[in-house]
From TrEMBL, chains A, B:
Entry keyword DNA repair: no
Domain D-isomer specific 2-hydroxyacid dehydrogenase NAD-binding: 101-276
Protein's name according to its UniProt entry: Glyoxylate reductase NADP(+)
Pfam families with a match to the protein in the record: 2-Hacid_dh_C (PF02826)
GO terms for MF: NAD binding; oxidoreductase activity, acting on the CH-OH group of donors, NAD or NADP as acceptor
UniProt keyword NAD present: yes
Keywords from the named record: NAD, Oxidoreductase
């Protein structure tokens, strides 16, 4: 069984994978085109993986290194009966720390453009009353899965209040209050911050659009660490300009790589990071802890043991 | 007894002060020069307060709105037997939130200049391995008073490790480990972050200088939320340039207002805020909670009840 991997596993990790019966690991750097039809398992999606899947192949299991799987050719994979496992659960704590960083940046006036402008720097002091404590601030968290839970846990640890939003409003760990997606849109609760951690599906495509921003009872700060296309970028920019949003932090974008001429570059009160919040220390170890048991199970039974995605649901 | 105040107390708060026998409150906006010799108590230091003290006066009690009192004419006040109370204790939680914000900014790569540069934005993604989790990072906190304790408490709440530094290395609340100032200089412990919360005294003037930065066993990120003159700015800039420091965040400066031509504007890996971290929501309420009992006690006994400063020690 041939495993193609774009993940930088250590030599010891490769050895452990190859200690499974009949398993042979090919690092992406060692790949040659003639091997394409011989690949059984793909560890981490890449342009090369896409190319292999598009041609004659025998791929039967793909392990992603991301929590979301929206960027895979889901319909084709479903038709070809390829099993897909996501990496959900490993990014939560990292994303939560970034979300807290964004929140403190706004609350503590850390990254305000005046702070980088010698001529206006001390003017910020005059406006120091804009600073506030984050204790008891209300945060609406869209998505109550691994990432949403990790965000809620960290924020509550230091005294913020969280409300989770999911499809039906069902209870979820790390949340004392949850509401349904439809309710959140029809009767949005007062929130100081709104954090999106939802996967990208048909239901979440452009969920955060002009009507959503217009209905907020007070201007929140909007943080997107989920997927870019959940947000209507044009509407977001308008909401920042007309004051329906007090600010925004985006780690993901409708178009990635973000174009150099994107109008986002001119939007006010906007922090941007280049899809980096999910970065995990020693990510190879975290991925190995998911991939190894899955590969073991796949070799023995043809099934996966953890994190199997539903290709029809898209997560 | 005439009270001059620059603090924006509410009408209700002024009434409560004036319910004390013989107390009359004069808001700074209502001050007239002829009143100068009649002022007994000054609430919040200001250029006007300095002018009153410099002339014939009968001032006997000054309440500051800051934790530090280094900017007062301490020797003169001591000689004139003026009682001084500081506002220590009210800024700790706010400063702690700002410190956590700076730490997350660096750890989560939030404010990196690449994130504001359309041409290089997505390059940050290539370098995403520079992001790290703050859990278990080691933070050396200079000063184990109110502010140092608040910083330690907040950081430990989310999993960072703290070591307190004070004059003798005596134990302090919110710290599991403390070391002496001299030890920290002679045998500096490994630290990912160093936070200064020390008051400005003769002993702390330029404490953070070239020798201090040169002796660090690994390049830390240095955060100053104490007083500007505790740092040798020229040495700090050199340490940022030569890599002895991995980064720095400064809220206070040797010269305030920070000059527009300060070489700090050209220093790498430096975050600056305009002496704003101590900003407290509803600061008037917090100050009133210190000033009112002090004024009450002063009226009754001629003594203060809380936060009295030692003018010889300077804090």
């Amino acid at each position: 069984m041939n495993i193609l991997t774009a993940t930088h596993f250590s030599t010891a990790q490769i050895s452990q994978l190859e200690s499974l019966p009949d398993v042979h690991v090919i690092r992406q750097n060692d790949f040659q085109p003639k091997l394409a039809p011989t690949i059984d398992v793909i560890m981490a999606w890449s342009p090369l993986a896409a190319k292999i899947l598009a041609g004659p192949n025998r791929v039967k299991f793909i392990q992603t290194s991301s929590a979301g799987i929206d960027y895979l050719p889901l319909a084709a994979l479903d038709q070809q009966k390829v099993l897909v496992a996501h990496a959900g659960g490993i990014h939560g704590d990292a994303i939560a720390q970034s979300v807290l960083g964004y929140i403190l940046d706004f609350a503590r006036y850390i990254t305000h453009p005046q702070n980088r402008d010698p001529q206006n720097f001390w003017q910020g002091r005059i406006q120091r009353r804009v600073l506030y404590s984050v204790v008891n601030k209300r945060v609406l968290i869209y998505g109550t899965g691994h990432v949403g839970q990790a965000v809620s846990q960290l924020l509550r640890q230091i005294g913020l209040q969280t409300i989770g939003v999911n499809h039906s409003g069902h209870p979820a760990p790390e949340f004392t209050e949850t509401i349904a997606l439809a309710t959140s849109k029809a009767q949005p609760p007062v929130a100081d911050f709104i954090v999106n951690t939802l996967p990208l599906t048909n239901a979440t495509q452009h969920f955060f659009a002009a009507d959503f921003f217009a209905r907020q009872p007070q201007p929140p700060i909007f943080i997107n660490v989920g997927r870019g296309p959940s947000v209507d970028t044009t509407a977001l920019i308008a909401a920042l300009k007309n004051g329906q949003l007090a600010g925004a932090a985006l780690d993901v974008f409708e178009q990635e790589l973000l174009p150099t001429d994107s109008p986002l570059w001119q939007a006010p009160n906007l922090l941007m990071t280049p899809h980096t919040t999910g970065t995990v220390d020693h990510v190879e170890d975290a991925l190995f802890a998911i991939f190894y048991p899955n590969l073991q199970s796949f070799c023995q039974t043809g099934k996966l043991s953890v994190n199997q995605a539903d290709l029809k649901l898209g997560y």
